[in-house]
UniProtKB/TrEMBL annotation:
It comes from Centropus unirufus. GO terms for cellular component: extracellular space. It is found in: Secreted. This is Interleukin. The keyword Disulfide bond applies. The keyword Ribonucleoprotein does not apply.
Length: 166
């Protein structure tokens, strides 16, 4: 959501610039370069990692001392085909953290909620049909992974997201 808002702000600023100087810009070479960049910038902004906001929020919560839960933690070295189920598992476990934060009134509750919102949007936008029986048979269910403490869970989650962003 934050990235989308930044894109809108950038596009609005570019619109204002072009609105006031459009005819002048068309008359010289610099103006044509600016118009080209305006058309190119939204495409490059979309090219950065879609999980960047989730990663930032994970970095903010990783040192939280008031979250004390055991969570199913997927292996970071799982098969590439299992990447989507692994991401879904991490976000399912984030729901557990949210509930824990609501109960204990954690200092990082807003960051945890932000991770869930941004992650769910990305997962919905990236929905891949997972009907392939070989893939689903090959990939573990979330509950099949080892339970680990909050710190280890966040470290694994960060590694998985960094792998996605490469």
């Amino acid at each position: 959501q934050r990235t989308h808002l930044k894109n809108i702000c950038l596009q609005y600023q570019l619109y204002l610039l072009l609105k006031h100087h459009f005819l002048y810009l068309l008359k010289n070479e610099t103006g044509l370069i600016i118009i080209f960049l305006c058309a190119y910038v939204p495409k490059t902004a979309a090219g950065h990692c879609k999980w960047a906001e989730v990663l930032k929020d994970l970095e903010r919560i990783k040192t939280s001392k008031d979250i004390d839960v055991s969570l199913y933690t997927a292996n970071t070295d799982e098969d590439k085909e299992c990447q989507e189920p692994i991401m879904r598992c991490f976000f399912l476990e984030m729901n557990v953290i949210v509930q824990e934060c609501y109960i204990k009134n954690c200092s990082k509750t807003q960051d945890v909620v932000s991770i869930l919102k941004n992650g769910n949007v990305n997962l919905e936008n990236n929905k891949v049909s997972n009907t392939n029986s070989l893939t689903s048979a090959k990939c573990k269910e979330c509950e099949e992974y080892e339970e680990k403490n909050f710190t280890e869970f966040i470290q694994s989650f960060v590694k998985v997201i960094q792998k996605e962003c490469k």
